[in-house]
Amino acid sequence: MDASLLDWLRDWLSHWLADPLGLDLQSHQLGAAHMALRAFVVYVVAVAIFRMAKKRFLGQATAFDMILVVILGSVVSRAITGNAPFFPVLGAAIALMLAHWAFSGVSAHWHLFGLLVKGAPTTIIKHGKVDCRALTREHMSDRDLDEQLRAHGVRDPEDVAEARLERNGQLSVVRAQPPQGD
Fold this sequence. Notes:
Layout: H1 3-21, H2 32-52, H3 55-59, H4 63-81, H5 86-109, H6 111-118, E1 122-126, E2 129-130, H7 132-137, H8 142-151, E3 160-165, E4 171-175
Antiparallel strand pairs: 1-2, 1-3, 3-4
C-alpha cells in the first residue's frame, strides 16, 4: 500500500474519529459529547457483537453466558469512560465474543467440554420423590422447590415424573402421567 494513501487514511480517521471521540484525550479531559458519542459507538459495536451470538445465548443464559456478559460490560465501559484505548477495547470485546462462540460451538459437539464450561443439570425429583441431597447440593430449599413447582402449575411433587434444575438455573418439570383407566 502506498505511503501517501496510508497518511491520507490516518489523517482522515484522525479528523473524523479522533476529535469527536476524544481519542487523543485523557479520561479526565473527555466531555459529555465525547462520552455520548463513545457510548453510541460502543452500543452499535455491542449490538453487532451480540448479533454474532447464537439466539440461545440471548434467551437462556448459563453461568458460561453470564460470565461473558459481565466481562463484556466491564471491558466496553472502559472504552466509554476513556480508561483504556478505544479501539483495542472494542477489539478485546470482539475477541471475547469469538471465544464464547468457539467454546459454545465446541461444547455443542463435544459433550465433555460442554459439561466443563456449562455444567450439568441436576435431577431434583424422580418418580414423585424429592432428592433431598440434590436440593442441598444446589442450595435450594423446600420452599424454593415448591415455588418453582407452582410456577409450572404443580402443587405436589408426587405429580412429577421428573424435575431437573437445568444448567441455566431454571427448573424443568415433566408431569407424571395419570393412571390409565380401563
